[in-house]
Amino acid sequence: MLIDLVPDFSKNFAKGSHSELRIHTNKTRKASLLNGNLIGNSRSESSGVSARVYKNGFYGFSSSAEYSPATCLSVLNAATSNAEYYASRLTSGKPALPDLPTGSIKIKEDFSDPDQKFYIDVIREIDEHIKNTYPDLDSRGVTAYADSMEKLLYVSNGYESHSIMPRSYIYVTLTGANSSGEPIEVFRAFGGFGPLDTNFRDPSELYEDIETIYKQLCDKKTAVFADAGFKTCILGPRMTGMLAHEAVGHTVEADLVLGGSVAGPNLGKTVASDKISLVDFAHTAFGAPTPLPVYVDDEGTKAEDALIIDKGKLVGYMNSRETAEFFNMKPTGNARAYAFSDEPLIRMRNTAVLPGTDKLEDMIASVEDGYYLIDSNNGQADTTGEFMFGVTIGYEIKNGKLGKAIKDTTISGVAFDMLKTVDMVSDEMEWVSSGFCGKKQWMPVGMGGPSIKCRVNIGGR
Amino acid sequence: MSYSVITIDKIKDDADISTIKLLRSVAEKCKSKLTEGGATRFVCTVSRSTNNEFNVDGGVFSLFRTVFADGLSITCYIGDKKGSASLNSSLTDDANITAAVETALDGAKAAEPDPDWEVAPNEGSKIFLKGNLDFDRDGLFDRLAEAMDTIKAKYPLVLVEQAITNHARSISLFFTSSGTEFITISGSYGVEFMYSAHDGDNASSFFGSGFTLEQIDKPFVETGSFAESLENIQKQVYTKPFKGKKTGRLITTPELSSELIFSAINNFAGEYNILNGTAVWLDKIGKKVADERLTVTCATNDPRFVGGQTYTGEGYLTKDYSIIDNGVLTSFDISAYTANKKGLKMAPNAGYNPIINAGTKSIKDIIAETEFGIYVARFSGGEPAINGDFSGVAKNSFLIENGKITSALSETMISGNLEAILNNIVDISSEQELDGTSVLPYICFDGVTISGE
Lengths: 461, 453
Hints:
The complex is a heterodimer of chains A (461) and B (453). Chain A is of the alpha+beta class and 461 residues long. Chain A folds into 2 domains: 212 residues, PmbA/TldD superfamily (PmbA/TldD fold, 2-Layer Sandwich), CATH 3.30.2290.10; 230 residues, no CATH class. In chain A, 21% of the residues lie in helices and 39% in strands. Chain B has 453 residues and is α+β, with helices and mostly antiparallel strands. The radius of gyration of chain B is 24 Å and the shape is globular. Chain B starts with a strand and ends with a strand. The model of chain B has no long low-confidence stretch (mean pLDDT 95). Chains A and B meet through strand 2, strand 3, helix 1, helix 2 and strand 7 of A and strand 3, strand 4, helix 2, helix 3 and strand 6 of B. Strand 2 of chain A pairs parallel with strand 4 of chain B.
């Protein structure tokens, strides 16, 4: 746990400019088995201090890998000097940042950090189970991965904080061959908030889920190409979460709105069916902690939920302090930095479509000719809202019943058009938090939702 | 020039000399702690770097960032048991170095032995000097401001969503238990622009242009294909969705040509799928895997490139090689570990720096000879399946009908199979684009499914 070497640092912040000092550590641990061979076995740690100063309408930033009271002062001075350099070459015209509520939220307890042997033992046990239970596999991969971010934040105005966000996962990949001898693959991540020895005390708890993905692999042996074109599809919760993050979430990040995203001209307008509401949750959702809770962001804003779409209407953006002032909105704590050497950017936290009232079985029964799309390996979206998601697990729906599995494919659409076609939303809710969002810096994010029925463009033959 | 090999007396900057002394002292501490801890082999890198970066967001200058970083990465072996640790924390704190060494040793102790891990034999001691070490703060600022002014004046529909220009400078010391010692002193400028075009509420998709430079003696907008991309994006504000489904030709810009071909190489001849035995080209060494006009060279030592890889992770000095030579697969893109594990030959370098040989026809003529097809600058698609099936959205694309570009497209998907399209190349352009890290042509493939509403 970080030791606070600069408890009175705030006295060094100059009046008339907004300043931040962040002491920040990232840890990652990883062990990977491929067909029983330990191909990955590594741990990494990154730590240091950074300062950001907003002066005369410009930000200056500096960081150092050394954490000492003297270095804290030197990065603060360097950040100030960088902001002053811009001001010496340009005129900003931007106002000073408005004041924020002040306070302090500091954690008191650390989380466990199991040794590397624990990681190897867990994946070895799971790998042995897979090898013995499914001898017909062509290949199997099991990875244990954990990371954590710990931050100690001082600000000239706002909330000071000390936070730790640990998460850990087991990734399982199973590979076989289809009837033509071509390789096929399924992949699933298990886990969430917390260290590995908390989330995976008993690896056998995963075996039921591994059985599910093995069955999906068997289904893919006789998979057919999807029929390319616009189709009625049911997106499962993990696909809906991807939609919430990639196709909507990015377009409503206020820095991308300033960059010309489709959300700019659509604020206050209907962008989805009235069955759709979307929220970027801070730390608590549906009465429980979110997968990756944020209590104070890296600008010192106390984190609150950001309501983005309310019953089909676009009502807000995710903001930094600077963009909130520009758009006359309240900042809700979305400015986050990944590493000590990174400046805070507007990032999502736990972005989800809210569940509805429909039953999944009724939704499937209502589709005459379409697809049920369960899992994705990646997704991308444009500032226009045009998105694409890879589909790795999906099934045909014929006359209201699930049919054959489909080969890996891609779906695409334009978010604010596609969301208007949603006519059923299931009453379930699932979170995913194993991935990283890439936007200049990496960032762990949570995403989730129910199943939704909609019209999208599907790739295939 | 990619790099030069110098002697220590050529380093004149006192700060560089003292940094090298620090790195050497860290290396000596690591060596003795690793040996004391029972390591029988090791490969380590210790580095110190500075990055200065100008940021533009939403069309305006926003942030000036300066980062000072220290790095230490250790891979060690106790017998055949491997452990790794990396650190980005202060090198002047001995506790950090001790912790990194102990973490790597603990990892090795916990691992099972695997005789296929490899450390290269002694490759000697060398000092590599790469790129431009001097950060010209005012010069970089002026070039960025000039580019913003030029875009505003000449491409009035374009909004720069984000621009990042930087100068990165680092000194690293790579050392192994075999006695290899490589010092690398490097510096280069990076330029990245992400932009879209707008007319009222109508907008194009975003597009990115980027390059790596040794010198900033030329306006950014005149570098590589930046001007052409700015022209094209202004034509993509008003698009038409493709209707129906049809098989046709796919013409890829130089960047996308490389992306598709290396997606195929990674899938069919890359580390993971070779290791797990599912790579489609596993038995194709020496055999035809693509059209005979396709030659793809991984040229990390090419003098046109800034800062290419000079040694592999195991400590071998790199050599340039053609992974596909006139359509024939000559090598897998694999490390020494995978090569040992599978009884194959390792790749002579692990960096891409691709050169794809030019064809004989101009891109203008290739378009003119296309009866039906699609010109695509960016592909937004899922990871291709192991067998090479791919599908995704054709971004920043134009429809080609009867030899002419007829409209910009949106909501249009392309799908096909990577192995099939490599054998279905219609033409490779005579023009090649150099962006500081690659030399690439346009490529026209046939047999791609184009679909929309």
